[in-house]
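As a warm-up, study this chain.
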Amino acid sequence: MPAKLFYETDANPAVLRGKTIAVLGYGSQGHAQAQNLRDRGLDVLIGMEPTRTSSQKAREDGFTVLGVAEAARRADWVQILVPDEHHPGVYRAMEPHLQKGKVLGVSHGFSIHFKTIVPSADVDVVMIAQKSPGHLLRRVFTEGGGVPALVAVYQDASGRAQESALAYAAAIGSTRAGVLQTTFQEETETDLFGEQAVICGGLASLIKNGFETLVQAGYQPEVAYFECLHEMKLIVDLIYEGGLAWMRHSISNTAEYGDLTRGSRVVGETSHAAMREILARIQDGSFAREWIQENATGCKNFTALREKEKQHLVEQVGAQLRAMMPWLKGSPKKTEEGAPLAAKA
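Now compare it with the structure written out below.
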């Protein structure tokens, strides 16, 4: 069955007219979605602890900032845009005010799919998952475009949940690009898999292993950094623009032949088997339980792993080389919501 896509003509913006939307969190996604919604003429509140650093930024941007419970009480639609691990606490604060007829929205299905929160049966529960960082969502919107998104309905208490979700997708600009129908399960499991096996975990390990192989063979760390990390962006940009075929069209014949004859030796059946195992642990809930337990015990292992990675030679060499490249923006620190500060610009 072909994928089901929705565009501007499929959405009814009037569904949200006169509604108040509470955006919980003002990090990467929170600031972008809130500002796009407001630019569409909607009434938007920011829900978060008013003493948090990012609440000041929200006020500077012209929003009313209220505590989570009060924002949820005033709102017709509550959009949770804080990290997955914070959803249960946020939901407990807002739950008394999530009455029949309201809409609960998320942009990632983890907490709903793995039931770290369980909404009452009389509210609509929907997901609008834009496929970009928040700063890009905002920038493209202001330029008159939009970024693609996924849309899903978990619970349709009103009989109009899909219509509401598409109206929200339109309000943040995503129907300008296209919105793909999915489910909470599909979005959650594929998102986790992509992060762990390919675009974050897999890629980071590939870079480090390549770097270490060259350094251990006696090559300069600086040269290894350029070959295994710095040039990665050039290749990824080509893939992003036109797929693998465009990348292969753009590189040298020598590089393409090496790609086609050696790549599968590095990422071959052993890697494929590991990917299947990672996916299985996502599907059966093992990873979710591990992550929930990690947070429940103070993230000691997570913190240790972070610190260990910071000490890797590729990071030390990279910091020195990037200091010689003034055109780079640098490494943004994270906000309280877990998103890069640069993403809030």
